[in-house]
Specification:
two-stranded antiparallel ribbon, 24% strand, ten-stranded antiparallel sheet, alpha+beta
Length: 203
């Protein structure tokens, strides 16, 4: 009787591998000590960490800045905005400037991304719109070490320019991270980052 031959990986399975690895990375580090979803509430700053692995990200060592009141990356501590998460559906985020979303068509496009080239940078204000422009849900994942801000279908990473705000003289745009078979990671000159929800004391 002939021996069964090992199956070679198909193209489909190879293309799905990054998605499976990404999902397993998000769910691997189960933290039984604390449910971080309990921290993702109320008011907080959003610190930006330069990382490609949420399970190993360091709030101190990897921090490159924070998001300002208009939803852009800044390295000026005084410009770090305080964000408010809606306590009920649709769980939107906002600053004193207004609601935050990726829907402001006046914000720059992510031209370097194969799959995100038609998507706009995040922003907070009138242009971002409210429910009339569609709802964006923001959440975190229990099992991670910290409350990282996610949206959509396990979208917990974002794109920004390699240059830092201090080098460019102003805040930088931040986009959603997209990947696929034609582009597994960010393009050259772009950094993959995560957003850390850093609660502030109650007023």
């Amino acid at each position: 009787m002939p021996r069964p031959q090992p199956l070679l990986p198909t193209l489909t399975s190879l293309l799905l591998l990054p998605a499976l690895l990404s999902f397993s990375t998000l769910t691997a580090a189960v933290n039984t000590q604390h449910d971080v979803t309990l921290d993702f509430t109320g008011r907080a700053q959003i610190h930006v960490l330069n990382t490609t692995d949420l399970t190993k990200a360091s709030p101190l060592a990897d921090r490159i800045g924070c998001l300002d009141a208009h939803g852009m990356l800044t390295s000026t501590e005084e410009d770090c905005a305080v964000f408010t998460r809606l306590s009920d559906l649709p769980y939107t985020l906002s600053t004193p400037a207004g609601n935050c979303s990726f829907r402001d068509e006046n914000m720059p496009l992510n031209r370097d991304s194969v799959y995100g080239r038609n998507t706009h940078a995040w922003s907070c204000g009138r242009g971002a719109g409210g429910e009339d422009k569609g709802v964006e849900y923001y959440y975190t994942i229990n099992g991670l070490n910290y409350p990282f801000v996610c949206n959509g279908n396990l979208n917990c990473y974002y794109d920004t320019l390699d240059a830092r705000p201090a080098e460019t003289g102003g805040p930088l745009p931040v986009w959603q991270f997209f990947w696929g078979s034609q582009q597994f990671d960010v393009a050259k000159g772009i950094s993959r980052v995560a957003w850390l929800w850093a609660p502030v004391p109650k007023e």
